[in-house]
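#struct-queue
[09:14] JT: dropping the first one here, sequence first, then the structure tokens:
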Amino acid sequence: MSAPVGEEIELIEKHEEILRHRAELLEQMEARRENLNLQRRRQAEEAEAARQRNASLLQDLQKIENRLQQNQLQDPALLDLETRYWSSVERSLPAWKEFLQFKGPHPADGSGRPARRTKHKVSTAEDQGLPPRPRPRAGPGPGTGPSPC
């Protein structure tokens, strides 16, 4: 009869150990949940602060843009230059579209062919006003090398 009592005591001890382990895990889970909630709150606060900064920066940029537009000098030469620039862009736009779609040549090439690199003439010593280079000597032949002693 002592064997069943001993087994029962072992089972009770195991049960208590399991309950302790369960309590520890529950505490860890609760701490983790609190950390996650805190982290979420911080992220939300940081996101809101970033939104406010971005809105403020956008307003500042819009104010600057408005000021620049109001203060822009309407110089006739500048307006003429701008008009000529945009008309040039409109004229060259079709050629650039063809080039970018791989259907035509580069618009800067007036010839209609892709630009080629120019070949350089190989210069010689005489072209540069230098004396000619010595000719390479033939390799050592029989009797021309050092004599074996």
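[09:21] JT: and here's the second one, same format:
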Amino acid sequence: MPITSLMQSSVRRLVSLYAKQSVSRVPGLLGLRCIAAPYSSAPNSEEHAKRNYANNVSEYNTVLGSLIAQRRPYLLRDVYDDMMLDGVQPIRDTFHSLIVGAMKGSRLQDSFYFRDEMRALGLVLDVPLYNFLMSTCGKCKNSNAAVQLLEEMKRSGVKPTGQTYICLLNACAAAGRVDRVYAIVRDMTAAGLGLNKFCYAGLIAAYKNKTPVTEETTNKIVELVKQSKGWSSVEASGDIAENVMMGVSEEELYNIPTSEYVHRRGFLNRQLTVYHVALHACVELRSVETMETLLDMLKQDNYSPDVFIVIQTMRCYLHCGYLERGVKVFEDYFSAGRPPMIELYVALVEGAMVGHTPRGMEIAQETLMKMSARGFFLNAKMGNDLLLAAAGEKTGGYTTANYIWDLMQSRRINVTLPAVEAYYKGLKEREIPADDPRLLLVARTLDNLRLKFGAGRSA
């Protein structure tokens, strides 16, 4: 079989596998066919039908929706290529799914590719699609491309909405372009559009991302939080129907740090978006003083910290080296009888490991034990992030990294190449016998991952 045909067949096999995995969850995938026979050098139509996973635009759209739900945006372009090879004509809904999927995966090049393909088929981009494209620019910190999209909208006769300007504002904020952010605010004001909480969130993010960081940075953040209390209802906050249908919250569209928690019951008070962004900025700026000022303001406004704010408070103390104060925030939360959440444990472990101090590593391991005792288990992302962080410990017994590795092995959690590489390097730096079972297992895992991703073998 020619190399190109072999590669195409491999992609079909991979996408078919993921489509099959989601049959029980996504209506419509029951009709999709997965590969069931070996490939021959000259496949006939019957064999093609056996390994094909979609036959029409409706089934292809279902596969796209399934891949987006499974967070596998890297397969979207392959599915689109299959549509073209099969002679299936994409429709507007197809491109909405493709561009939303590219946005969720922060795949800027793919999003612009789908935009160009849409144009080539004679389809006109609408306002929501431009908003999704701008949001992708923000995720990738490419404010120039976002500004060009606005100019393109105007040339094409597509009228920007208030949501479009907020997408643009937050895209420029992600790049720290305070000047552009204020220019957008002036344009919105001139057009009679009010500034809502997401505008103030963008202004705060712009100052946080602006370099160099000065004393004005934290002062401006506090000032903007105060100003936001009178935010306008001219363009009141609310998810529009298009975004709801595509599974995109306003927080995700504007790249607000709370986006992954929006649908978690009891996690967020969405009225506190400006506080969320400001306190998240305090962690990155490592400003305990600013954080405590904001918490006082929150109390004066008669609001209690939600789970996200508790986590940011903990992280700020821990990242600034105030380990015991971070632990106290954690303990106070549970003493108040509030519901346990795994993110609290993970935040304490992650923050305690900053700097890899002996006391910090001790806190991290104790917290992991408490977490396991309460029946909480790490998912793949949490586990790999913590293993990567723990593997950076240069002194000590490496017990925290070993404990995280054992937790992941007991749950058969897939380990990523960067995490295994860092963990293996840390083991090799210690006096461990060459035939140690742990070392042999980690080395074998590393070899398998390197061969899989073409990175060679371990030393």
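[09:30] RK: nice, looked through the second one.
[09:31] RK: Residues 1-7, 22-42, 233-237 have pLDDT under 50 and may be disordered.
[09:31] JT: good to know. The chain is about 65% helix and 0% strand.
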